[in-house]
Amino acid sequence: MGTPAGLLQPHADRGVRALESRRRRRAPDRGRHPVHRHHHAVNARPASTQRGLTFIEVVVATAVLAGLATMVLGTLSFMETASLRQKHRLNAAEVAHRVIAQFLDDPDKLPDKSLPIQQGEHLYRFILREEILVTEEGDARGLRRGAGRIANDLPAEEQLRNMLARVTVQVYLDDPSAPIDTSAPMADLVRIYGTLSLADEDAIMKRLLKLVDLINTQRAGTGRSQPSNAPPRRP
Question: Among 33, 106, 133, 142, which residue carries the largest CB count within 10 Å?
Answer without folding.
Answer: 133
